[in-house]
Fold this sequence. Notes:
By secondary structure, the protein is of the alpha/beta class. The protein is built from 6 helices and 6 strands. It comes from Rhizoctonia solani.
Amino acid sequence: xxxxxxxxxxxxxxxxxxxxxxxxxxxxxxxxxxxxxxxxxxxxxxxxxxxxxxxxxxxxxxxxxxxxxxxxxxxxxxxxxxxxxxxxxxxxxxxxxxxxxxxxxxxxxxxxxxxxxxxxxxxxxxxxxxxxxxxxxxxxxxxxxxxxxxxxxxxxxxxxxxxxxxxxxxxxxxxxxxxxxxxxxxxxxxxxxxxxxxx
Length: 199
């Protein structure tokens, strides 16, 4: 993930007891936009859509990249109990978010996509995507910018701009922090240290 704008307001999201907050998931084919029922408009990126209780699980599915909750022992026990007793746990395709989507169905306050903007959305949901409104980019799928060299030819062209954001931030941080003792550890943790990452 790459935080592009301040997200401190997430600490103030009002939640009912036993609720969580998260952004919607998108199907892998990116063929559906969770927006207002009237259709996606230019404000849909930052406009949270709360599905009706009777809506199917697709509209209730979260992406677990960003989850807001008020941690309590009671909520912890409830989640642990749910993990032990949900018969579908071993069948979930995306275990964490599928479990949370099912367990907290009708107890999710949905956030706008700007808090957890999944990288494929920039192209497949270009009608609602606004670069300037993105607060946090979630680099889903295996081709992460910190794994692939900046000049790789393996990256799908649609992701060049979004991966470029990460590289711009990396270079800025490197210029500021490379003399710090811990910087070498950061390089190693990104997996780029052994892949010709600039130093």
